[in-house]
Amino acid sequence: MAKNLQITPLGGLGGIGKNMTVYEYGRNMIVVDCGVMFPANDMYGIDLVLPDFEYVIKNQDRLRGIFLTHGHMDHIGGLPYLLQQIKAPIYGRPLTLGLVQKQLAEKDLLHKAEFHVLDKDGHQDIGPFRISPFAVAHSIPDAVGFVIETPVGKIVHTGDYKLDETPAGGYTTDLAALRELTQDGVLAMLGDSTNADKPGRTETEQVVRETLDRLFTQAKGQRIIIATFSSLLARLQEVLSLAQKHGRKVALTGRSLVESVELARELGYLQVPEGLIVDTNARIRPGKMVIIATGSQGEPRSALNRMADGSHRQVQVKQGDTIMISGGTSPGNEEDVNRMINKLFERGANVIYGAMAALHVSGHGSQGDMRAMLETVAPRYLIAVHGESRHLYLHRQLAQEAGIPPERSFILKEGLPWISDGQKAWTGKAMPMADVWVDGRLIGEIGEVVMHDRQQLSQDGFIVALIPVNKKQQLVGEPQIVSRGFAHLDEGSELLAASRKEIKRQVKKGNPDLRRALEEFFYRMTQSRPVVLPQYIQV
Fold first, then answer.
1. Are 27 and 36 in contact (CB under 8 A)?
2. Are strands 153-157 and 144-150 parallel, antiparallel or unpaired?
3. For 339-372, b where at least 16 C-beta lie within 10 A, e where not — what string?
4. If you ran DSSP here, which 8-state letter would residue 168 be given?
5. Count of domains in the chain?
6. Span 380-408, pLDDT tens digits
7. How many other β-carbons are positioned within 10 Å of the β-carbon of residue 55?
């Protein structure tokens, strides 16, 4: 009986983040990427969202290796959590592995992984799989896609890419290598869908460099503060080069930024002239200083947000500072970013952001890039990945224009396997999947019930009813009511009096579900649904 190839996305579909895909043939399994997703605004208290690792953990005896496309958190950030439960060989390019090692070292997990450097012009044979990386242009060096040879055909896993002919750092998408690797045909392509709703081609990074150069010239005599992603090394290199060109020193603020720069310098991915980087406390004239900071997304504890609040210990925003936000705002972060920008303006800064200037270009290909990739690879089947639902469906439309009929373009759900024998393809039985929420040191312990309570608390607050009773559960005193985030219940409040009366009535009749009864009471009285916590106190 012939064996089939099975490809199962565990993340990366229906949202941006937690990219993770399982490839299986017979008793052999490899995993491509293991990322996290940052929480939506209504995920109160949640730090990160992880893929559901259960299937990989249950089948770890078949796991031959984890292959990483690049070093962004939505592709590598889940590894410290997965490796708390399994050991695995990890394959990637030097910068990617360096970023992973830093993460694992912080959690004392380096012993749980074996690291193998992938030659960008070579291949890795594991069981029935041959994995050949090819270089892609993205917003971080050492990004690759994979051509995965299997017994039933070749699979192209594009990773995150764009077709930038003049990228910073010279990292282009190697279509020539891709053509050579796929000249005998491609069974399926798992293609990045992120910018499927954007027409044309994604602009080159060179546009950002030209904008930054112009703004550096305009800011003569003024201190420059630039916020960007700590992993956007190409952008960091541009800023460092321009600072040297314009006779400025550079200071770094933000832990993740400092660590990224240190690692990139160590591995040779950042060229930093001797003496260019100085301490944030260095006594240098404003017109000779550039500060690079974290915080392009308005994160509460980021360096730029602390400057906006006036709580940054080393850097205080001053009248006349030029602040550039060089990073596209991720969906869900708009309010935080706008709030931060308002505060920076109020402190007297000249803030340049968004559509005001070309300070950011996407690391993902737009429709024109995606069409070119489809034409280059010419896969028999398309599996749209890495995007929200609308992106996946629009990618399928682009595939149809490229000659791939809808029945050969698959839009999967997380946990739904794609199966092929090399001649035809179909979907299997969906695995039960659930997002895993990280809240501090709690991993997977926050469920839907807790999240529902948090959402309710954020909307209507809570009430604690302290009910004094004797050993026979008879009321022996006046109930006390404490509320937070709900109406202020002082002693003269009609609502307080009515609440105490209702509590007495429910206790007297011995209602076994006092909480529900009180929740219904407060809804009748206020049309709000506070969380109600009745507490009997024996006196």
1. no
2. antiparallel
3. ebbebbeebebbbbbeeebebbbbbbbbbbbbbb
4. G
5. 3
6. 999 999 999 999 999 999 999 999 999 99
7. 18
What pLDDT is stored for residue 1 in this prediction? Answer: 41
Share of the chain above pLDDT 70, in %: 92
Q: CA-CA distance, 50 to 103, in Å (whole number)?
A: 15
- Mean pLDDT (the chain) is 89
Structure-token pair, residue 501? 């009366």
Give the CA dihedral 277, 278, 284, 285, nearest 10 degrees: 30
Report which DSSP code applies to 316.
-
CB 137 within 8 A of CB 167: yes
Q: What is the pLDDT of residues 96-140, one digit of tens each?
A: 999 999 999 999 999 999 999 999 889 999 999 999 999 999 988
> What is this structure's pTM?
0.84
Q: How confident is the model at residue 2 (pLDDT cuts 50, 70, 90)?
A: low
- Domain coverage including residue 270: 205-355
345 plus 370 within the same structural domain: no
Q: What is the CATH number of the domain that holds 307?
A: 3.40.50.10710
Q: Residues near 148 by Cβ (< 8 Å), separated by ≥ 6?
A: 23, 30, 129, 130, 131, 132, 154, 155, 156, 157
**Angstrom distance (rounded) from CA 128 to CA 154:** 12
Same structural domain for residues 185 and 64?
Answer: yes
Reported as half-sphere exposure (CB side, CA atoms, 13 A), residue 180 has a value of: 9
Mark whether 20 and 152 lie in a shared domain: yes
Same domain, residue pair 77 and 175 = yes
